[in-house]
Amino acid sequence: MIRFFLIFFLLLSFGNSTIRAEDGYRLWLRYEKIENAALRQAYLGRLSQIFMDGEGPILKTAAEELEAGLGTLLGKPIPATRVSGGTGGVIAGILGRSDVLGRLVSDEDARKITAEGFLLMSGPEHLIIAAKDARGVLYGAFHLMRLLQLRLPLDGLHIIENPKVKLRVLNHWDNLDRTVERGYAGFSIWNWHELPEYIGQQYIDYARANASIGINGAVVTNVNANALVFRPDYLEKAAALADVFRPYGIRIYLTARFSSPIELGGLPTADPLDPQVRQWWKNKADEIYRLIPDFGGFLVKANSEGQPGPREYGRSHAEGANMLADALAPHGGVLMWRAFVYSEEEPEDRAKQAYNEFVPLDGQFRENVLIQVKNGPIDFQPREPVHPLFGAMPQTPLMMEFQITKEYLGQGTHLVGLAKMYGEVLQTDTYARGKGSSVAKVVDGTLHGYQITGMAGVANIGTARNWTGHLFGQADWYAFGRLAWNPYLPAETIFKEWAELTFTHNPEAVATITDMLSSSYETCVNYMTPLGLHHIMAAGHHYGPGPWVSKMPRADWTSVYYHRADEEGLGFDRTETGSNALEQYTPDFRRQYADMDKCPHKFLLWFHHVPWGHVLSTGRTLWEELCLHYHQGAAEVGRLKKKWESIKEFIDKERYRQVSMHLEIQEKEARWWRDACLSYFRAFSEMEIPSGLEQPGHTLEYYRSLAYPYAPGIRPRW
Ligand code: GCW
User: Fold this and answer.
1) How distant, in Å, are the alpha carbons of 174, 289, 403 from that of 293?
2) Residue 646 CB: number of other CB atoms within 10 A?
3) Last residue in a domain, options 465, 491, 506
4) What is the SS3 assignment for 363?
5) In this predicted structure, what is the pLDDT of residue 7?
6) What atom of ligand 1 comes closest to residue 182's alpha carbon?
7) Residue 659 pLDDT > 80
C-alpha cells in the first residue's frame, strides 16, 4: 500500500512539475490558452481557418506558426490549408502572387507595404495578412499572434507595419570552442563539434524567437575572429545553421578575420591591394555562396585590440573593407566594418579615435559596406554621449551597434531595462542636418538617404535554460528586436508588451514590471557611474567596481585615465581646455555641453573636470551630488525588490524565485559599487560622506583587495 502511495505521489509531483515547468525557456512565445470564453469565441468567429495562399519555406513556417499559435490560444485545432476555403478565417499570402489577396487589398494599401512589411486587415468574416515578400507574411503572422497574446480586439484592424531598418542583426561574440566573450548565460548555443549532422532544438527555437521580433540576421561568430570558420568543414557546419535559419527569414553572417589569407590560405600577406589576397577573398566568398546561397556577408573587427587589419599594410579601413565588399558584391552580400577602433599608440583621448580614423573616409566605401558604430565613443559604458560619428558621415551608411549582453551593466545578475538606454541614444539629436536629426533618423536612413541600413545587438544568449541567465535579460533581447524594427517605439510600450507576453495580463503586475524595467536603467547608472563617470569597472572581467585601476598595458584601459580624480576635482575635461573631443560634435550639439554650469548632469564628468566643492544647479557641491546619486541608486534596488515582492501572487513560483535571487545579488552588488567608489573618491575630495547617508561597511583597502579570477564572460584573447 505504501508503495502505491509513494508511486502516486511521485507521479503527481512530477506530473505537476512538467505542467508547471516555468523555467523561462518559452520566452515571450508562450501562447497560453485564452481563459475568457467569450473572447475566444469572438476570435474564433474570425480565425476559423487559415488559408496560406502561396508556398515556400518561409510561408510554410508562417502557416505552422499560425496553426500552432491559434490552436493553443483558442483551444481548438485550426488547420492551415493551401486551397481557398471560402472567404472566412485568415487569408495570408504575397501580393502579386495571390489572386484572392489581389481582390481584397486596395492598390493604395498595396503601395504602402515595403520590403518585409505587412498589412494586417480584418473584414466582416476574414483577416488578411498581405505582404510583398515571404518575410512580411511571417512577420505579419507573428504580429497577429502578438495581438491575440495581448488580448487585443481584431475588429476594424487595419495595420501596415514596415521595418524601418533593413538589416536587423544579432552579433554573437561566440567562440568556436563554445565559450562566449562577455557572455553571462552559459556557453554558446552553437555546438560546432557536432554540426552539421546534429541540429539542436535550441537552434530552431532561436530562429523562431528572433523571427517573432523581426530579426533577419545572425552573426554566429565572435568579432575577435577565428579564421578556422572559413575552413571547408566549418563552412559545412555554418551551412547547416543557415538551413535552420532560412525558413525563419534569418540570414547567417560570419566574422572575417582579416589575416585569413595568411592563416588559412598560406599567403605571405593579407594586404588588401595584393592581387593574390583579393583573389583569395573572392574565391572564399564564391565557396561560401555555393554552400549558402543567401549568405548575409561578413562582419569585421580590424586594427582594434590586436585584431589584424589593413593598417598593418599602410592601407586604410576603406581599402580593407572594399576588398571584402568586392568579393561579396556579386552575390548580394554586405560587409559590416566596425568603427570600434582605437590606435596602438595612446593619443590624448580615446573618445576621439574612431572619428579621426573614419570621417576622412566618408564616401570612400563601396555601396554594400555599412560601418557598424557603437552607441558611444568609448565602449558600451552604462551611459555615453552618442558617438560623434553619427553626426559626421552623411555619405556612408552607419549602422548602430548596441550591446544586449550586460558587460558593463551588471553582467548576468542585474535587472536593467536596456530599452531605456537604447531609446535615449536613438532619440538624441545630432543636429547633423539641423534640429530633428536624431540618431534614429541617421540609422533608419531617412536623414542622409542611406540606401542600406542596419542595427546590430551583441547577443546575451547562451545555453542557460532561460536563454539569458537573468530572466529579465529576455526583455533586452526582445527590446532590441522591436527597436531594430521600429527605432521610435517608446521603451515603456516594449516593456509592457514583454511583461504581458512573458508573465501575466494582470494590469497591476504588468504596470509594476514595466515600472521596474523603466526605472532600472537610471538606477544602474546611479550606483555604477553617476554624473557622467565612465570606465571605472574592475579590470579584465569588468565584474564590479575598480575606480583605482591604474596599471594596465595601456593607459586607456585603466580607470584613472577616465575619471581623472585629483585633490582638485573629478572628471575628464573634453572641452577646448582639455582634449576637445567636444569639437567632433556639431555646434548645436556642442553648445549643450561646453559650459560646466549648463552641462546636463548626466554628462557633467564626461565633458568636464569639476572641483569637488563646485556648487551645482541643485545647490549641492559635486561631492554631495556624487554621494547622493550613488546612494539613490543603491536604495532604488531595494525598491525594485519590493516591487517584485508586491506582485508575487501573479508570477509562477519558479520564475518568481529566479528573479528574487538575482535581485538579492543586485542589491548586494549595488551597495558594493556605491561604497567602493565613494571610499575611493573620498580620498581625493577629503570630504566625508554626508552623515545622513549610510557609511561604507568596509575600508578602501578591503574593496581594493577583492579579486574574482573566475568571474564569468571570459576575456578577449589578444
Ligand atoms: O568592450 C570591449 C570588450 C571586448 C570586445 C570589444 C569589442 C569582442 O571588453 O570583449 O571584444 O569591446 O567590442 O570588440
Assistant:
1) 23, 5, 29
2) 12
3) 465
4) coil
5) 54
6) 10
7) yes
Q: Is residue 214 in some structural domain? A: no
Ligand 1 centroid–CA 223 distance in Å is: 8
With contact defined as beta carbons under 8 Å apart, do 536 and 559 qualify? yes
Task: List CB contacts of 156: < 8 A, sequence separation 6 or more.
Answer: 122
CA 253 – ligand 1 centroid, Å:
19
pLDDT for the residue 8: 53
Running DSSP on this structure, what letter comes out for residue 311? G
CATH number at residue 567: 3.90.1330.10
157 has which bridge partners?
none
CA atoms within 13 A on the CB side of 691: 0
Please give the residue range of the domain that contains residue 563.
526-705
- pLDDT band for 618, please (50, 70, 90 cuts): very high
Q: Quick check: CB of 456 below 6 Å from ligand 1?
A: no
Please tell me the distance between residue 289's alpha carbon and the centre of ligand 1 in angstroms.
Answer: 29
- Strands 251-255, 369-374: pairing kind: unpaired
pLDDT digits (tens, 9 = 90+) for 68-124: 999 999 999 998 887 766 667 999 999 999 998 999 999 999 999 999 999 999 988
Is the shortest distance between the CB of 340 and ligand 1 below 6 Å? yes
Average pLDDT over residues 1-17: 50
State mean pLDDT over 474-481: 98
Q: Is 379 one of the catalytic residues?
A: yes
Q: Are residues 48 and 172 in the same domain?
A: no
Amino acid identity, position 517:
L
